[in-house]
Amino acid sequence: MADPKLLFGQRLIQLRKHLGWSQERLALESGIARSYLGGVERGQRNIALVNIHKLAEALSVPPSSLLEPPSIND
Question: SS3 breakdown of the chain: % helix, strand, coil, rounded to 5?
Fold first, then answer.
């Protein structure tokens, strides 16, 4: 079974890149430190629910969409 932190990070990368945003831009839009965000995307951080909501708001997606498996097409 895949590590949920890795899957979350892959999905976050997918949504961020879909918008054409850098990690820096997402960090600025969400108010989350870029270094922490990088750790989340690499699956090294166990992200808090509050931060999931901040990222979802910045990406203009429902928080639940961050928990969906990364799609193969992107």
Answer: 65, 0, 35
Write down the pTM of the prediction. 0.92
Domains of the chain with CATH codes: 4-67 (1.10.260.40)
* Closest of 35, 41, 49 to residue 17, by C-alpha: 41
Burial of 40 per CB tally in 10 Å (0-12, 13-18, 19+): buried
Ranges of the chain whose pLDDT falls below 50: none
- Name the DSSP letter for residue 44: -
CA-nearest of 8, 71, 15, 69 to 39 is: 8
